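DATA SHEET
Item: assembly model
Revision: 1
Owner: S.N.
Input lines:
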Amino acid sequence: TQLLEQSPQFLSIQEGENLTVYCNSSSVFSSLQWYRQEPGEGPVLLVTVVTGGEVKKLKRLTFQFGDARKDSSLHITAAQPGDTGLYLCAGAVGNQGGKLIFGQGTELSVKP
Amino acid sequence: NAGVTQTPKFQVLKTGQSMTLQCAQDMNHNSMYWYRQDPGMGLRLIYYSASEGTTDKGEVPNGYNVSRLNKREFSLRLESAAPSQTSVYFCASSRGIQGYGYTFGSGTRLTVV
């Protein structure tokens, strides 16, 4: 069974602080995606990383895919209250119709 | 707006009752998925349909059945609801190509009493 472990599970910080969320597995994934979910809504795709070592930036968010394609990180610079939400990583499983395995999620709260 | 539409948004069932959750997408996506979300457990795959006419079990299929009615619609049926099926259910669709992201519906919050 392929598993994705996210850490930390909960994170409460002050506005302006930096943070990093980690997503780790013993399995290799062909690609990895990050989603953000707000209460009462479905997850929304933030980014997809495909190549080992790849780094993508989305404004204050930086995503990195590990060289071995087993892990990923999400770094937020100068967090804002609008960044509050549940962050989920998801790994693509082989060639199975685009099936994704999701991590448990990181609940982020950014206080003004 | 284009996307994934789920109905109903909320439902309360008594133990043993049956119901069908409906999902439709208008993006001409090939693949569709049903997940459940429970606190601290992320999203767990119940069933998926890689393409019209095919369905496969995911991680937690017991107690559920699915139907891929056509390319647009993918329904999830609970034949005899149990309290352990209390959860938030999400339908998603995708082109089914590696690296292509999912579009999720807004979810169905189901309580079984």
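QC remark: The mean pLDDT of chain B is 94.
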